[in-house]
Amino acid sequence: MGVPKRLETIVRMFAEVPRDVKLQALLDYSQRLPGLPDRLADHPERLHKVRECQTPFFLAVEVDDDGRIGLFFDVPAESPTVRGYAGILQDGLKDASAEEILAVPPDFFLKMGLAEAVSAMRLNGMAAILAAIQRRVAEQVG
Predict the structure, then answer these.
(1) Cα of 37 vs its chain's centroid, Å
(2) Is 74 helix (H, G, I), strand (E, B) or coil?
(3) CA nearest 79: which of 30, 123, 33?
(4) Long-range contacts, stretch 123-127, CB < 8 angstroms, 24+ apart
(5) For the segment 84-139, what is each residue's pLDDT rounded down to a tens digit?
(6) Which of 30, 42, 110, 124 has the greatest CB tally within 10 Å of its CB?
């Protein structure tokens, strides 16, 4: 098992476009990232900070009755690259199972060609975000 189909589609799209389009697509994903639902926004203690990420990045993972994973992110608008990556993860992993999320390779985003569009420090943060998501998912499902 590898990247879920939704995420694989996004990866392919990014891989096929030039650098300037990648940056615009990240911005688009950044702008589409929804705010936190009230049950999380009103209770920030339910969010987990990704300490390895330079950008203040908070996440929550929820498992529904069908075993599907819900991902929720709080990322400042002033960090459109990281916020865009969060949008990609939220869209690409929407309704994925725990097994699908845990099977995502830690460097899947390199296939998107993001190394030509963002700094190495941001790439390290992206890897840390995925690792944090996978840790939270593993904890939630036991």
Answers:
(1) 17
(2) strand
(3) 30
(4) 124/52, 125/50, 125/52, 125/53, 125/54, 125/55, 125/57, 125/82, 126/82, 126/85
(5) 999 999 999 998 999 999 999 998 999 999 988 888 899 999 999 999 999 999 99
(6) 30
SS3 43: coil
Which residues fall within 8 angstroms of residue 126, CB to CB, at 6 or more apart?
Answer: 82, 85, 109, 114, 118
Write out pLDDT tens, residues 52-81: 999 999 999 999 888 899 999 999 999 999
Tell me the one-letter amino acid at 84.
G
Backbone φ and ψ of 58, nearest 5°: -125, 145
The order of strands in the sheet holding 48-49 is 48-49, 58-63, 69-74
Question: Per residue in 112-123, is it b (16+ CB within 10 Å) or e — as a string?
Answer: bbbeebbeeebb
Contacting residues for 71 by C-beta, under 8 A, at least 6 apart: 59, 60, 61, 89, 90, 93, 94, 133
- Show the domains of the chain with their CATH numbers: 5-141 (3.90.1010.10)
* Calpha distance 142→65 (Å, rounded): 15
Q: Is the dihedral of CA 52, 53, 58, 62 positive or negative?
A: negative
